[in-house]
Design a protein that fits this description.
single chain, 430 residues, alpha+beta, Rossmann fold, Dna Ligase, domain 1, D-amino Acid Aminotransferase, Chain A, domain 1, five-stranded parallel sheet, 13 helices, 21 strands
């Protein structure tokens, strides 16, 4: 089977790494890829949002399967264009991808179908949004309706912060078109977790849960980022809670999408808050999480490619998948200043010329924002590397991940030092 993987970040590196292990694979093309991904497949310099060029590439390469990694091309209708050309695609239609591309759509869907989420309202202007914040009282959460690279959810501890977040969206237009409609919702109290499942539009297969660390600094301080690290499994997601998530959230969501004429096919990522009243949806995403994907896939104890292909062709899914018992941790190494302004082009020390890490103990490095310049590996993004490690438990995985981080360096490198802290606290509690 020949596959085309769309994307060039850390999530796509993890997908390429896992897909390349399949004995069914005859060739892997990646667009655009990155220097780390190039170890697993042939990278082609086509942007992941260049829909026409990606379609032409898929047809020219005569691929059997297209796997779409990021959300932006899905929202642009890449899956629809590829399917119309007769190609098998892992990733939802543009209509189904509205679960992520429009938070207003997702919230309205949940309200119509009784899927548990935070109390909310949708606004197209600043005045009514500010009035609702005062009606709700602080803290509140202000979210951009459209895609904002994981940075469009602003937790506002005071009404003054809420006013500032609303100004950022409507008046300063910091998020462009994505922020010209906002969702204002209640602040939910609990522990957040990422839950993943595969669906072919009718059946659904739960995968593993993971816990992301969204803010840039330790102790969940500072602004939100695309994610500074993750671990899997997530102890907060016990078997009983997972069953509730499937029964109350994921199966009803898949049924609702089919009922409303937009069957969902692909991976469904539910960002959840485990509250005192049970699990509630924070948001939906229509792709694997980043960096959760980098933490989860090394735990998958079977071939990923047949699962992706079964989803793409609607052939039905198995009842379960096999997972290693190991814990997995991924620590993101970011450019200094991220998620604000940062510099690129900084040489990366500690990795081989092809971006691999020699002699790592139970660890590996997934590339997120790297490039080759004059044959040398340099930084090329905000999130640069995801350092992942397995261990017999979360403590061992954390130790191995940070020991590996210590072997890598670039000017201004920043990373959180507390990835896995909630899982460690649970492990240490009697």
């Amino acid at each position: 089977m020949k596959a085309l993987l769309v994307g060039g970040g850390g999530r796509e590196h993890a997908l390429a790494w896992k897909i390349a292990q399949s004995p069914l694979l005859s060739g892997l093309v990646v667009a655009p890829g990155n220097p780390g991904i190039a170890r697993h497949g042939r990278c082609v310099p086509v942007r992941d949002t260049a829909v026409d060029d990606l379609l032409a590439l898929a047809l020219a390469e005569r691929v059997d399967l297209v796997v779409v990694g990021p959300e932006a091309p899905l929202a642009l209708g890449l899956g629809d264009r590829l399917r119309a050309a007769g190609l098998a695609v892992f990733g939802p239609s543009a209509a189904a991808a509205r679960l992520e591309s429009s938070k207003a759509f997702a919230k309205d869907l949940m309200a119509r179908h009784g899927i548990p989420t935070a109390r909310f309202r949708v606004f197209d202007g600043p005045g009514p949004a500010r009035a609702f914040c005062r009606e709700m009282g602080a803290p509140v959460v202000v979210k951009t309706d459209g895609l904002a690279g994981g940075k469009g959810a602003i937790v506002c501890r005071t009404l003054e912060e809420a006013d500032g977040a609303i100004a950022l969206c409507f008046e300063e237009r910091a998020f462009g078109e994505a922020g010209l409609r906002v969702v204002v919702e209640e602040f939910m109290v609990g522990e957040e977790v990422s839950f993943f499942a595969l669906s072919d539009g009718a059946t659904i297969l739960p995968l593993a849960a993971a816990q992301d660390h969204k803010t840039v600094f330790d102790d969940d301080q500072g602004p939100n980022t695309g994610g500074m690290g993750a671990h899997s499994p997530a102890p907060v997601m016990d078997e009983a809670t997972a069953e509730r998530v499937m029964a109350e959230i994921l199966r009803p969501t898949i049924a609702a999408m089919a009922q409303e004429g937009a069957p969902y096919s692909g991976v469904l990522y539910a960002g959840l808050m485990i509250t005192g009243e049970g699990p509630r949806v924070v948001e939906f995403n229509c792709r694997f999480g980043d960096p959760e994907c980098q933490a989860i896939l090394p735990r998958l104890d079977q071939d990923l490619l047949p699962l992706l292909d079964a989803v793409a062709r609607g052939r039905g899914l198995p009842a379960s998948v096999r997972w290693r018992s190991d814990a997995s941790v991924c620590v993101v190494m970011a450019s200094g200043g991220y998620p604000g302004k940062y510099e690129t082009g900084r040489p990366i020390a500690g990795l081989d010329p092809d971006g691999a890490l020699p002699g790592a103990e139970g660890a590996q490095v997934f590339h997120a924002g790297t490039a080759l310049r004059d044959g040398a590996l340099v930084t090329a993004g905000g999130r640069v590397l995801g350092v992942q490690a397995l261990g017999s438990d979360i403590r061992e995985a954390v130790r191995r991940a940070y020991a590996t981080v210590a072997r890598i360096g670039f000017a201004g490198a920043h990373f959180r030092t507390d990835i896995g802290r909630r899982a460690l606290a649970r492990q240490e509690s009697p």
